[in-house]
Structures are given as C-alpha cells and as structure tokens.
Amino acid sequence: MPPSYASEKAELLDVIAPRHSLLSGRYKQSFAYIALQSRMPGIMSQVTKTLLLNQSYLEKLHGTNLDKEIHIIIESIERLRKELRRDREFLLFHGNESDKPEWNAFISELPRPKRSYFRASWLHSECYLYRRIHSFFESSKYLRDFDYFADLKRDDLIISARAINCLTMATRGLSKNYECFSRLMRINLWSNHFDIQLAAFVFDSPEDNKNIDVLAKVADLDRRILVDESLQVWNCLLKAKGQKEIIVDYICDNSGFELFTDLLFVEYLIDQELATQVRLHVKAIPWYISDAMKSDVEWTISYLKDNKDEHVSSLGKKLERLMKSEHILVAPPSYFWTGPQSYFVMVDSNIELYKMLTQAQLAIFKGDLNYRKLLGDYIWDFTEEFITCLRGFRPTNMCAMRNVKCEVICGLPEGVADHLLKVDPNWMISGYYGVIQYTDSFKCKCDAQQSLCSLNNKA
C-alpha cells in the first residue's frame, strides 16, 4: 500500500460531521461513527444468536443437520465484524447474490479512499454490511430464505396489542376531510414511538381510546413536527379526483407496529377514494433489522385477521380482501431499495422502477433510511429547500415522512435548527422530532423516454 494512501486511510477526525459533506464514520463525533463502531457489531451478534436459537426449528423444517452451514455463516459474520473494526476495504461479491453485478460495479467505481468502512459514506458502509450479512445466507443450501430478523419484527407487533386495538377502533368510520387525513398521517409518522406512549397512557374516559382526536394528543404530535406539509399532500390527492386510476406508491420503512399504521393509512386512502390502488414497495431481503418484506405484510394481515378482538379481526379480513382485489398490492421486489445508491441515480441505474413511479399520482417515502437516500446522506444546510436536495429526482409528486434520527435534514424554517441545538443538543439523532415534506412532480409533455433523458441531464 503506498504511504500516501495509508496515511490518508488512517485519517479519522475527532470532530462533528461538517456542513456540505457526506455523513461518514470518518468524523468520530458523528452518529455515523457511533453506529459503525458500536451498533453494527451488536447487530451481527444478534444475527448469530438468532441463528443458534432457531437451529432446532430449522433442522426440523429442512429435515437435515445444519451444523456445517450454520458454522460457516457464523464464521463469516465474525470475519466481517473484524473487517469492520479494522476499517478494511469493501470486498467484491462472489456468491449467489441476485444483485451481484450492480454491487460489484458500484464498489469498483468508488474512489479507493472512500471504499473502507469508516471513510466511506455511512450510507454505503451500512448498506454494504447488511448486504454482506445476507450474502452468507444466500450461499447456503437450506438457509437462503431464512429471515433472521423475523422474530424481532413480529414481537414488535404482538407487544403493541393495546395500541392496535385503540387505533383500530378510532379509525372506523372516519370522514373524508383534511382533519381526519392529517391526524391519521401524523399518527403514522410517529408510529415508532406512538405505541409505547399509547400503552402507558391513562385515558380520562373509556371512550377516549376510540377517538382519533384524543389519540393524536396522546403522542403530543404537533409540538415535535418541524415541517408539516400534509395539506399539500391532501391537495395533491384531491386534484386527481375523477380520474379512472389514482395510484399511490408507498415506499415502506419498518414492519411491526409501523407497518400496521401504514396499512391503516392505506385503508383510509382506498376507502375515501383518494387512491384506487396503493402499491407497497418493500425490501427483497432482510434489511436494517426491522424493514418490511413481502412476508411481513402477509404475516401482519394474517395476524390481524386471526386476532381475538372482533374489530381487529374485521380489519384484517378487510385488508385481505383489498389485497385480493389489488386495491392494495405488494409491488414486484426491487433490489434497488437495498442498494447503496441515492435515489437521484435511479433514472440511470433502474429505469424500470423509475418508470413505475412516474405512473403514480403520489409517492410516499417512509422513514429515516428512505430520507437519507432521497438526500444522498449529504449534510445540507438546515434551511435548504427539499426540492433542491432531491437533485432532480422527481418522478412524480413526492412526500417524505420521517422521524429525525441522523444529521441529514433540510427544509427547516429559519432559526428552528439553532433553537433546537440550544434546547436539545441531541435533537438530530433522538427520533423525537419529525418532518412531513412534499414537492410536486417535474414532468414534461414529451414522450416518456425523452422526459427521462431530460431529467437525467438536469440531475
């Protein structure tokens, strides 16, 4: 290794991530560094533990002794953990990965100094680690389809029983108006925290748990929403009134209780004829511990359908009917959602997915990871406009709903970030603040291919 490269590679700075830089573990006072240094090794240990705990079940399922395969996977995970701690370079994929060509091309095109765990963009490092973990299972004969995060995702829904019952009751028979729409949208935004608060809340009246106004107040929603452009989202959907086909693309985030609130929101869109079809975009492989897959959608609806509470069971049966009639459907799996690329390169790297999004009246991007990919894991000025930070990625009208969990954010009113830094220094990583941001599409009147080329040039 040339001395100049060795010294450059070792350069980790004990500072916060500066403005106008990529979020990276290179900056030791950033959340990216903490996550790579502490959180990712813990997740690898969790995968190993889950594999061992499920060994007997897997052997019964496959009717074979899996000791050798499990041993190989655990050894591979341990080797990956050591590579991370030593800030080694990303390796090319040589297994049975369906997206191997795309990943290898991406890694090969990265500049060498930005190809190691702590010096790369945090987005690149984190996605690479999750992708590498699953590659170990893909090389297995019997464990290719084993979801090592499934138990955690399902437990998250099961322990939220009270919140599920309350929200199911409160969302029956909602009117078609902005007030109901916005409350449901905000509850959906806070679903990562809302179930905990709801489970601990003592209602003044037994009827309060059936009242969406009361439920919205439980989570103290308004105080912590830094940007709320839900009215623009509402108006966007109203503009499509009368169209034969109104498609909403819903790019999902977490499974568990959050997916349940996603389905409540989607149900409302269909019931109120704000959409004729909602396409759920989920992950093709286990991802970021809790991200939703097709199997999670199916399991969640089955869990609701079989629930002892008649209202919850009725909801599950209704969702099953909506799935069968394709008013709600799971979009064809795309490995782009588990790739390392920011979304503004979609028009170049996955034209078919981009074309699919252009068919929709609205695309809703849920969660922190989707937000980071929309903004490219780049630390913009707090007040930079959302539309600017998308860097030309505007296949359709777009909404981003996200709890703030890292230093990537934009579109804030002047002075808000300065105030938050004074009263809550950890506001960017706590998850206690959120945004609902919106931008209109940018579509020209020429044919689709010319439009895509034009957008590509502008990006």
UniProtKB/TrEMBL annotation:
It catalyses: beta-D-fructose 6-phosphate = dihydroxyacetone + D-glyceraldehyde 3-phosphate; L-glutamyl-[protein] + S-adenosyl-L-methionine = [protein]-L-glutamate 5-O-methyl ester + S-adenosyl-L-homocysteine; beta-D-fructose 1-phosphate + H2O = D-fructose + phosphate. Its EC number is 2.1.1.-, 3.1.3.-. It holds the Pfam family ARMT1-like_dom. GO terms for molecular function: metal ion binding; phosphatase activity; protein carboxyl O-methyltransferase activity; pyrophosphatase activity. GO terms for cellular component: nucleus. Its cofactor is Mn(2+); Ni(2+). Residues 37-419 form the Damage-control phosphatase ARMT1-like metal-binding domain. GO terms for biological process: DNA damage response; intracellular phosphate ion homeostasis; methylation. The keyword Methyltransferase applies. Keywords: Hydrolase, Manganese, Metal-binding, Methyltransferase, Nickel, Transferase. Belongs to the damage-control phosphatase family. Sugar phosphate phosphatase III subfamily. Metal-dependent phosphatase that shows phosphatase activity against several substrates, including fructose-1-phosphate and fructose-6-phosphate. Its preference for fructose-1-phosphate, a strong glycating agent that causes DNA damage rather than a canonical yeast metabolite, suggests a damage-control function in hexose phosphate metabolism. Has also been shown to have O-methyltransferase activity that methylates glutamate residues of target proteins to form gamma-glutamyl methyl ester residues. Possibly methylates PCNA, suggesting it is involved in the DNA damage response. PANTHER family: DAMAGE-CONTROL PHOSPHATASE ARMT1. Subfamily III proteins have a conserved RTxK motif about 40-50 residues from the C-terminus; the threonine may be replaced by serine or cysteine. This is Sugar phosphate phosphatase. It comes from Drosophila hydei (Fruit fly). The lineage of its organism: Eukaryota, Metazoa, Ecdysozoa, Arthropoda, Hexapoda. The gene is LOC111601156.
